[in-house]
From TrEMBL:
Pfam families named in the record: DUF72
Domain of life: Bacteria
InterPro entries: DUF72 (IPR002763), UPF0759_sf (IPR036520)
SUPFAM superfamilies, A to Z: TM1631-like
Protein name stated in the entry: DUF72 domain-containing protein
PANTHER family the UniProt entry points to: UNCHARACTERIZED PROTEIN YECE (PTHR30348), UPF0759 PROTEIN YECE (PTHR30348:SF9)
Length: 275
């Protein structure tokens, strides 16, 4: 995410070497979805560079490779899983959670497979699971079954809230593309662990994005008051303003929970001048 072209010259300087972009992103936000690991496992050298560009409190939510989750569906995946775990090891404490995003076809009948897979992961890693099969959201028995497995392993259920996005028809090319790709599922706001992870998708229009996240501001503030440490990712279809929106969301939560630490001061995207 930190290499998005739309951010260059706005949130990060341009030109900027690739090995410096994460450092600048980390001055805007203190967490990132490591989504590129879904498509290919990076080298240890690359991950070491990520660690070097971020402080020890920075949070990576690192997605498991699609080879493991989508192609092999968590079965006979020991080799690619081992390579992935070895590659992300340099993150150390920055690896906030391993993100197990499952395909929409992975349903209630597959929960025993998920349980066995999660039990086989190293205990040192926190786990966050995102499911997209409708039954987990509409069938109370399926939801309870999944919650029981996750809670027993102190693993979190990651909601991907697209309700604001699908509330009205798309109005831009980016929204039209997302309309065909993003899951349309009921809202879920229940946390299972002390470290909830939320993914929220708004609209290209800022006002509609902000209006749609109001419930999450209250939920996140409530979690903080309970002693939880939530991580919330703010998306829009084009993500062009995502860093600024994430900071705005954080500020709105701080109004309700003043003891929440502020985000860092961003590194200027342009050199400071005397005039």
């Amino acid at each position: 995410m930190w290499t998005l072209k739309a951010w260059q010259g706005r949130f990060t300087p341009h030109p900027l070497p690739p090995h410096e972009r994460l450092r600048h992103y980390a001055s805007w936000c203190d967490a990132v979805e490591a989504n590129t690991t879904f498509y290919a496992t990076p080298t240890r050298e690359t991950v070491t560079s990520w660690a070097r560009q971020t402080g020890p409190d920075f949070r990576f939510v690192v997605k498991l490779p699609r080879t493991v989750t989508h192609e092999r569906r968590l079965v006979d995946a020991a080799e690619p899983l081992r390579a992935f775990l070895d590659a992300v090891e340099p993150l150390g404490p920055r690896a906030h959670a391993l993100w197990v995003q499952l395909p929409a076809s992975f349903g209630p009948g597959d929960v025993p497979v998920l349980a066995g897979f999660l039990r086989g992961l190293p205990a040192a890693h926190r786990l966050a699971v995102e499911v997209r099969h409708p039954a987990f959201f509409t069938d109370p028995r399926a939801a309870a079954q999944l919650e029981g497995v996750l809670a027993a392993l102190d693993a979190e259920w990651v909601p991907f809230d697209t309700t604001a996005f699908f509330a009205s028809p798309p109005t831009s090319d980016a929204e039209r593309e997302a309309w065909t790709k993003k899951p349309r599922l009921p809202l879920r706001t229940r946390a299972l662990t002390a470290r909830p992870v939320v993914r929220y998708l708004g609209r290209d229009d800022t006002a509609r994005t902000v209006d749609g996240w109001r419930r999450w501001v209250e939920v996140a503030a409530g979690w903080l008051r309970e002693g939880r440490t939530p991580t919330v990712f703010i998306h829009t279809p084009d993500n062009a303003d995502a860093p600024a929106l994430a900071r705005r969301f954080h500020d709105e939560v701080r109004v309700r929970v003043p003891q929440l630490a502020p985000l860092p001061d961003p590194i200027p995207a342009e050199p400071l001048t005397l005039f």
